[in-house]
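ERR on first pass: missing label on line 2. Operator R.T. fixed the label and resubmitted. Corrected input:
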Amino acid sequence: MNTTAPMIEIAAVNKWYGAGFQVLKNCSLSVRRGEVVVVCGPSGSGKSTLIKCVNGLEPVNDGTIKVDGAAVTDPSTKLPSLRAKVGMVFQHFELFPHMNVLENLCIGQEKVLKRGASEARAKAQALLERVGMTAHSHKYPGQLSGGQQQRIAIARALAMDPIAMLFDEPTSALDPEMITEVLDVMVSLAQEGMTMMVVTHEMGFARKVADRVVFMDRGEIVEDTQKQRFFEDPQSDRAKLFLSKILSH
Amino acid sequence: MKGWHWDGFFEYLTNAYLLEGALITLGLTIFSMIFGLMLGFVIAVMRMSKYKFLSGPAYFYTWIFRGTPLLVQLIIIYTGLPQMGIKLSVLESTLIGLTLNEAAYLSEIVRAGIAAVPRGQVNAARAIGMTEFQVMRYVVAPQAFRIIIPPLGNSVNGVLKTTSIASIISMEELLRRTQVLIQEKFLVLELFVVAALYYLVMTTVWELVQRRIERRFGRAFEAQASEPASLGEQR
Ligand SMILES: Nc1ncnc2c1ncn2[C@@H]1O[C@H](COP(=O)(O)OP(=O)(O)OP(=O)(O)O)[C@@H](O)[C@H]1O
Ligand SMILES: [Mg+2]
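pass 2 clean. output:
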């Protein structure tokens, strides 16, 4: 493994939805190994689109994206095997509703990584313990609270032993009292050295564990700075305005 | 033979030949539902493909089979195809005709079911590294299946009755056997009422079964309506 090359490298990416609407404009961003990068910006600025491009859930029209040296944007790259190495957590959890918690954690291990059932189960149990959900292993997602579902979703991603984790607003669909339980799991992951790209407006999380903050607006990466600097001295007016809005309440 | 004959009615009600006819009707229904569903699934997936060479033929198929009467399809298969050197027995013609016809209708149901699985589920499945086939097999199809259980149940009810059309090509199912027996004693009304009762018993029993199935699969699972899933990956 090359330890100096970035884990995630987005270079000059352009993307259009349909013919007329450019959702990503010449975006470049790199995330080094072990780095935690927080992406924020107004609604509709293209954050979800950008993060979905990283594991090829959305195609790009132009530019290149590499994950651990493999080009996501190269049509000959086998996307499934690349995605198996990159964990992703969604705003709306997206647990598989027809499987119980344990099955949710084992399906990828068994079908994608071809692990044996007992090995997968052991891994699942260990992760359930880690996210504090041991008591719920036989429940269905519909029987869990949002915070519990999101912790399971994180565990599901971790079960694949990912080399990096992508989070798309993991707490924005949660009731306030459940946000902490999810953020706690994410903070501990960050502290263990996981490479993370996190779309969130939780600035407390950003202050605590982020290395860098990326600010997007209207499809452009407007700022990409060390977090200290982003909070204390944002360069662009757009970032200043955005910060004043989200920090005021 | 004027008036209603109770003795004749009860005799036919327990007639082994008719009962067997009802079982054949049941068999035709089960067969055409199973194979119709399999073919219907393939057609639905083709229909949802972004590739024209897949979606085009699938569209053409449903257009033909939903746009013409089953009766005509059966006659073409049984009496028309021999002209092209394809000779099929009555049973083969019936099974093929019912299956092809049912597949066209079921594919529309399957398609609606697949479209009702939220797009986010597809993304989640892809994100853990599943291939497109695995996404369908483990995530989309099971959820689509639960969504389409009610309309599928209604289809079974429909097919139970539709099989009677095969009597026209002398398939010996319940209706055909009823007509055969009429030649014996000319108890027309009694016999048709018995046949109707048999159909009614089968559809009623099915209704009870269907309710149990719906309750079973309804537990601990509710599908959230959201963006439809599209098949095949864009790059
Ligand atoms: N599949 C799509 N087709 C067309 N337009 C889309 C599609 N997905 C997103 N968009 C548009 O692209 C823009 C960026 O969307 P995106 O979801 O990436 O924004 P976002 O920054 O994540 O916003 P939010 O904070 O609301 O999640 C929006 O204007 C959105 O309406
Ligand atoms: Mg978003």
